[in-house]
Design goal:
Layout lengths: L2 H13 L5 H4 L4 E5 L2 H15 L5 E6 L14 H12 L2 E6 H4 L11 H12 L5 E6 L1 H13 L6 E5 L11 E6 L2 E6 L5 E5 H4 L4 H11 L5 H10 L9 H6 L3 H7 L10 H21 L8 H15 L7 H20 L14 H13 L14 H28 L2 H6 L1 H11 L3 H10 L15 H10 L9 H8 L9
Parallel strand pairs: 1-8, 2-3, 2-4, 4-5, 5-8
Antiparallel strand pairs: 6-7
Helix pairs in contact: 1-13, 3-4, 6-7, 9-13, 9-15, 10-19, 12-13, 14-15, 14-21, 15-19, 15-20, 16-17
Length: about 475
């Protein structure tokens, strides 16, 4: 077993995850294959264990050509099909771009696309479902299986180190430009294949590393929400599960200067992404690795989705958002006391008026002439309704906690100490972002992000979802000036 995946198993054992029946069901079997031969052997063993003798798997792909470092064709899809044939594993090959009549680049984890994937999944019930591809089609097929109540083993085989979706029991779906994280189908097994992963476009691999950087800031959001009594529960199990990877993640930054990826960088990043998905699943929520930095990313996505523009890779935005979060946490840690804070009241009407005003001020490209119907208007209104519904829930929790704010302020010295323990200082995080070739400024993303777009995403971040994050605290404190942009 690869040493990083050995570390993963040891951490799960130490935390007692396998002793908890419900949590154990959320942990996929992990295979790290150094070669296509190892993958063939692992798949054959898995199929004999988990499928009937004459079983047939359905393999879902997006139809895009992807490079492989082994095999005569050097093409992932072709090599994988040949490998299944050699192993004697029967399969149905489902190209979602053909099934949905779209180009591969138009397959996004959106509600509209999900409804169409449900139809493809419904028509092709088999003994197992395998996704060979990106995080987007992993989430689409994963959630389509859940919605269609198709109880077959679900296997993910990433073709790039991009996101935590490959092992998590959640799916991130776009509704009218508002991204929502939904409880989804647990992953049964994940196969991480070095010849696939090391050849992925370097920007995609860097994006996966960027997603991991949330580990160094997001836990602070959960702590603050719990101590403020806006969140009902808090535990550090996921923090402990990720801790054995912290130093490896730091050391891996240099590896993203090379392509193909160095073996150590590939294995460490794969195992860390696997554990990130598992730790969120066993926590029962994505909170441990999704805080202020992620809602900034979702806000930037909203601007692009609402105006029909190409998205920036999720992990690029998360890296940028993590840097904003770390700098903001550093400023928050500089506050010796909260006793003189003029806390915002819990009037939902006033808060929703702020939401509406900030949506109206979104830096979107001009729409059609006002004498015609703007095709974006309906989508923007639907998004506003979605954001408002989510914020009402959070505002109700803030109203309940508002009367106890003095207790939070009195305990600030203890809260500040714990916040510092759980998070990384910006001076330590920024070099990792730079070494990995990730954006430290909005204009460094691809496509470039405008400065006013990032500023808007930060200001709108309290209204993105119902779960509290760092920006909510700043909003309720009336201290949004503490947020530090590049």
């Amino acid at each position: 077993m690869n040493r990083w995946f050995g570390t993963l198993q040891q951490a799960l054992d130490k935390e007692g995850i396998f002793k908890d029946r419900e949590k154990a069901l959320l942990v996929p079997v992990q295979h790290y294959a150094e070669s296509l031969g190892e993958l063939r052997a692992a798949l054959l063993n898995w199929s004999r264990t988990c499928m009937s003798a004459n079983g047939r798997i359905h393999v879902y792909v997006d139809g895009a050509a992807k490079k492989c470092s082994e095999g005569p064709t050097r093409d992932i899809d072709r090599e994988f099909r040949g490998l299944l044939g050699e192993a004697g594993i029967s399969c149905n090959w489902i190209d979602l771009s053909a099934a949905l009549s779209v180009i591969p680049g138009d397959i996004h984890a959106s509600h509209d696309c999900l409804e169409r994937v449900r139809g493809a999944v419904r028509e092709r019930k088999g003994d197992a479902a395998v996704v060979l591809g990106s995080g987007s089609i992993t989430d689409l097929v994963k959630h389509a299986l859940r919605m269609e109540d198709i109880a077959v083993p679900f296997v993910s085989i990433p073709t790039a180190l991009t996101v935590t979706a490959f092992t998590s029991a959640f799916a991130v779906i776009d509704f009218h430009g508002a991204k929502r994280t939904l409880p989804s189908r647990p992953v049964s097994a994940a196969f991480w294949v070095k010849p696939f992963l090391e050849c992925a476009p370097i920007r995609m691999s860097r994006a996966g590393y960027g997603d991991l950087l949330a580990r160094f800031v997001a836990y602070g959001d959960w702590l603050l929400g719990y101590r403020l009594e806006v969140m009902e529960r808090y535990d550090e199990s996921a923090f402990r599960l990720m801790e054995p990877f912290a130093e490896g993640i730091r050391r891996a930054a240099d590896g993203f200067e090379e392509s193909p990826l160095p073996p150590e960088t590939t294995a460490c990043t794969a195992a860390a992404l696997a554990m990130a998905g598992i730790s969120m699943s066993t926590a029962g929520e994505t909170t441990p690795l999704s805080g202020f930095e992620h809602v900034i990313s979702h806000g930037l996505d909203f601007l692009r989705l609402a105006s029909g523009r190409d998205l920036v890779f999720h992990g690029e935005q998360v890296a940028l958002g993590s840097l904003v979060s770390a700098r903001t946490i550093d400023r928050l840690l500089g506050l010796d006391s909260l006793r003189d804070i003029a806390w915002r009241d819990a009037d939902v009407g006033r808060s929703l008026a702020v939401l509406g005003g900030r949506m109206a001020g979104a830096p979107l490209p001009p729409g059609e002439d006002s004498s015609f119907k703007d095709p974006r208007r309906e989508k923007l209104e639907a998004a506003r309704a979605e954001f408002s519904s989510e914020y009402r829930q959070k505002c109700a929790r803030w109203a309940a906690a508002r009367s106890r704010i003095a207790s939070f302020a009195e305990s600030w010295v203890d809260v500040r100490r714990e916040l510092a323990r759980l998070t990384l200082r910006a001076g330590e995080l920024e070099p990792l972002v730079k070494k990995a070739g990730l954006p430290c400024r909005p204009e460094d993303t691809n496509p470039p992000t405008a400065e006013d777009e990032l500023r808007w995403a930060v200001s709108f971040s309290p209204f993105i979802r119902s779960r509290m994050n760092l920006s909510d605290l700043l909003f309720w404190m009336g201290r949004e000036d503490l947020a530090v942009l590049p």
